[in-house]
């Protein structure tokens, strides 16, 4: 297969030079876009289905989620949705709430998120909640029900 690829690249007339074109990987792109009605759904679907490299398009109107599978660049898909539909679109910013250590922290919890999801952030203010100092751990485990040598005052 290496020889065939080399020969096809050598005799390829579509490129202007001898540069090798970087090929996109097959990937799933999830986009958050407001979908109000069936007309909006149709408009978004048509905007993305015409792109080169798109294998499948799935829309979940209740979650305002568009899923595109294919050999595409995520930023180009978002730009295409914005350009063709005029709607605000962004890459899917949510993760399942059980993946995050503190799903109700101020920077993570989002009222607009679909059920079971929270906003994904790697903020330093939130990550300090995950790391408790050894003194804090010592005091919290001293009064734990699971600690057999815990204080009996409780």
TrEMBL record:
<dbReference type="GO" id="GO:0009626">
    <property type="term" value="P:plant-type hypersensitive response"/>
</dbReference>
<keyword id="KW-0479">Metal-binding</keyword>
<protein>
    <submittedName>
        <fullName>Heavy metal-associated isoprenylated plant 26-like</fullName>
    </submittedName>
</protein>
<keyword id="KW-0636">Prenylation</keyword>
<keyword id="KW-0488">Methylation</keyword>
<feature type="domain" description="HMA">
    <location>
        <begin position="26"/>
        <end position="90"/>
    </location>
</feature>
<dbReference type="GO" id="GO:0046872">
    <property type="term" value="F:metal ion binding"/>
</dbReference>
<dbReference type="Pfam" id="PF00403">
    <property type="entry name" value="HMA"/>
</dbReference>
<keyword id="KW-0449">Lipoprotein</keyword>
<dbReference type="InterPro" id="IPR006121">
    <property type="entry name" value="HMA_dom"/>
</dbReference>
<dbReference type="InterPro" id="IPR036163">
    <property type="entry name" value="HMA_dom_sf"/>
</dbReference>
<keyword id="KW-0472">Membrane</keyword>
<keyword id="KW-0104">Cadmium</keyword>
<dbReference type="GO" id="GO:0016020">
    <property type="term" value="C:membrane"/>
</dbReference>
<comment type="similarity">
    <text>Belongs to the HIPP family.</text>
</comment>
